Amino acid sequence: MKQIPVNHIVYLGPxxxxxxxxxxxxxxxxxVAPDPTREAVTGDLDDAIGxxxxxxxxxxxxxxLDRAPKLRVISTATTGAxxxxxxxxxxxxxxxxxxxxxxxxxxxxxxxAELSWALLMACxxxxxxxxxxxxxxxxxxxxxxxLMLKGKVLGLIGCGRIGSWMARYARAFDxxxxxxxPFVARWPKQIYKTxxxxxxxxxxxVSVHVPLNEQTRGMIGAxxxxxxxxxAIFVNTSRGAVANEQALLNSLLDGHLAAxxxxxxxxxxxxxxxxxxxxxxxxDNLIVTPHIGGFSFDSVNVxxxxxxxxxxxxxxxxxxSVFAGLFPLGIVFL
Amino acid sequence: MSNKARILISESTGxxxxxxxxxxxxxxxxxxxxxxxxxxSAIKEADVLWVRLRHRIDSKVMAAAPRLKVIVTPTTGxxxxxxxxxxxxxxxxxxxxxxxxxxxxxxGTAEHTLALIxxxxxxxxxxxxxxxxxxxxxxxxxxxxxxxxxxxxxGYGRVGRIVAQYMKAFGARVLISDPNVDPKSVRRDIALxxxxxxxGQADLVTLHVDLSEETRGFFGIDQFSAxxxxxxxxxxxxxxxxxENALLCALRSKRLSGAALDVLSNENSHSLKENAxxxxxxxxKNLIITPHIGGCTVESMEKTEYFLAKKLCAHWHEMKLNRSNRLRTVQLAxxxxxxxxxxxxLRLTSPSHSANLD
Lengths: 334, 358
What we know:
The complex is a heterodimer of chains A (334) and B (358). Chain A is built from 14 helices and twelve strands.
């Protein structure tokens, strides 16, 4: 099918996912992918009718929008759009499409849940110590007696989208699931509802899946770590500040927690002197990863393809005045 | 010397107290941690030898054990024991092979398989080392997911079935290949295909195959070449199933994006340090290796040891373990026709792809 020769879509995002945007858009529209720097992007805006925005690196402000006179629509591959000047969009009636409320696509984003499960299992099986042991040429399996998941109890703090996936994995592993979440709208039926204190004192594994806000900041403090069962495993892939990190460290130091797996730290990315990183340097029972939870090839491709499809739908549905005459009703795009 | 039979437990770190107490009612229990030389000496007086995976129980060990009547191994795989020699010497081997009901509750290896897979796909080893060195750059560790991926499970026995079930929970598409499986026993959402087809389609291939003469080295150059470019390879069964040179080539040529192993062909020998895969893993983060800890969980070891202790006690008389009524020496070269334990040893030659505990 013929491409629109002049007007194009500007793609802002990781180069690896460009193919996903092209696959959706290029049968119809030209896609231009400048380097994600302000200068490069600005140069390509003259003829842009839409922007697929998956970078989070480039602020789309008034000055930039002024350089894009033909712009009709921005589609972001994120739920938030703080980096875009919403007032200019309103003035010029530019449509903003975000992932907020796109339940179907969000529901199918699993990398954060998969990483949480990976950290839990890595703690149970002492993977960190076992890897290094073999690299040193050793092979003493007795040094790494693991914990079997089957028959244990997983406590989920936060029972939204990611918590629900965790519960699904847990059931396949014959792990019982209890959960605490005073805010969730639809309670997932595979999770047994408890109060926080009951959860902490019952669960063999505690995993945190809440957003950071004023109610959740420091919600797992010294008292809460004290309630956790001795020998339990603690996993946090949400935000570091949800836990009181000093209390977490103390709980590891005095052997109350058997192990912990963290993908987040308060103060990241400046973590070199973080007390938990200092502890991790000398103790195999703490695993820290650099906030890689939501970050996978697959998920970036999924959200970019989705954002691209929405731009295409928007333009071709006729709601975009520039194209109203070009694409009369009835043309089907394959 | 006491009339009581001597039960030598040659690797006893963390040995189940309950199992040891049960055994003490029948005989003298010796909890030890022996190297091979010590084993060869200590076994002289033993009626029962209880092993794990450290030693190869070959003709030399058995020749040094004139009283030995039973070898107990908490495994379903028996490649660490010379079974033909044991039969020749009228030594019975007590294992978990065929203990279907008991094994249903033992999940160690299946769980460890998932732990390794997720660790590999999310670059866990590299990521944690990066943080320990003070770094926090997520762009270095973009992972892949299980969701919507095609997972190839080779061998649909006990462990393979559980792994396939886990994969379904992660939203993966599951292909299985097993020449001995009844298509009717396969879940409807799992596809039974030929090995070649599985290798050509799977993003990740995981082996759950018993080691036998037919399967030794069966996964070689041809199989790695048939795999999708960029796929991952997992082995938690036995190292000897795989041509390790071919695996190394597949990693070097980037046909495989990564591999995770809990087993190596020479894992119990002193030459482990020279194993080319271990050497590769020191230089490359896309190969991760653990020291055969799949079946090694606190719960499953305790359960297994207690189960085998009960089994041993239940068959105590049948195995002529009371020293008072057994003063003869071991008969050699005598074809044997055991009753209840025959099935235990003979199953070794079955080509079944049912899986092993350890």
